[in-house]
Every structure is written in structure tokens, then in C-alpha cells.
Amino acid sequence: MVKLRPKRHGGKQRITYRIIAIDARSRREGKAIKEVGFHDPRKEQTQLNVSVITSLLERGAQATETVRDILKRAKVPGQVKIEL
């Protein structure tokens, strides 16, 4: 099963996250199938590739709770008809 989850990136106290599509059995820092976004909690910046995210979700990928919250804050479910 494919999941959308955050991958930690950056140094100590300068953490950013890349939103990736990855096999559910892989470790957190494992090789990603596809990178679909970026989230910086310090600057509250989010950059998402909405078309790729929706196509992955339509094909059966599942978003983790953290990624679901990021998508809701970015108002992705309102732009495209998907349920999170």
C-alpha cells in the first residue's frame, strides 16, 4: 500500500518536511516513490503538487493524519473532490 507521509529534512532546529508517496512498509527516511510537496512549520509555508496528490489518492493511496491536516490547512479537499 502507498501512503502519503512527511519525510524529515534539514538540520537540528531547522526542520522542514517533504511530503512523499512511499510504500507503507518502508522506514521514514526510505526511498520515496514520488515527492509531492514541501512543508516548513517554522515559516508556515506549504507547497503542494495538487494534481499528483489527487491522482495518488484516487488510485488508492492513503494520507497519514499529519499529511491530512496539512492538506486541510491548504484547502486541497475544497479544490478537488476528495474525502480526507
From TrEMBL:
UniProtKB keywords: Chloroplast, Plastid, Ribonucleoprotein, Ribosomal protein
Coiled coil location: none
Record's subcellular location: Plastid, Chloroplast
Tagged with keyword Plastid: yes
A molecular function (GO) term: structural constituent of ribosome
Highest taxon in the source lineage: Eukaryota
Chief localisation class: plastid
SUPFAM superfamilies: Ribosomal protein S16
Gene3D superfamilies: 3.30.1320.10
Any matching Pfam family: Ribosomal_S16
One GO term describing the cellular component: chloroplast
One GO term (biological process): mitochondrial translation
Family membership noted in the UniProt record: Belongs to the bacterial ribosomal protein bS16 family.
Full protein name: Small ribosomal subunit protein bS16c
Provenance organism: Plagiogyria euphlebia
Gene: rps16
